[in-house]
Design a protein that fits this description.
Strands 1, 2, 3, 4, 5, 6, 7 and 8 form an 8-stranded mixed β-sheet that branches. The model has no long low-confidence stretch (mean pLDDT 94). The protein contains no helices and 8 strands. The termini are far apart. The chain has 80 residues and is mostly beta strands. It has one domain (2-79): Sandwich (ATP Synthase, domain 1), CATH 2.60.15.
Length: 80
């Protein structure tokens, strides 16, 4: 699954197995084949990401939006 992270001045793309995001409504684990949707992230919460090589990383996001398709995720970081 492709994850594209878009910041105001840069972007990066990586291959991941899954992503866990925290929203105001609760946590979402997004895996390949997930139902397409747009999610507003809860402010100042962590994203957990399992990379393609099965290592895990976490990122704290001040504010952002996830756009999910069945094969990719775009993370638009609105506040850093």
């Amino acid at each position: 699954m492709e994850l594209k992270i878009v910041r105001p001045m840069s972007s990066q793309t990586m291959n991941i197995n899954w992503l866990e995001a925290q929203t105001e409504q609760g946590n979402f684990v997004i895996m390949p084949g997930h139902t397409p949707m747009v999610i507003l992230l809860a402010p100042n919460k962590e994203l957990s990401i399992e990379m393609w090589d099965c290592t895990r990383t976490e990122m704290t996001i001040a504010g952002g939006i996830l756009q999910i398709t069945r094969t990719s995720i775009t993370l638009l970081i609105t506040h850093e």
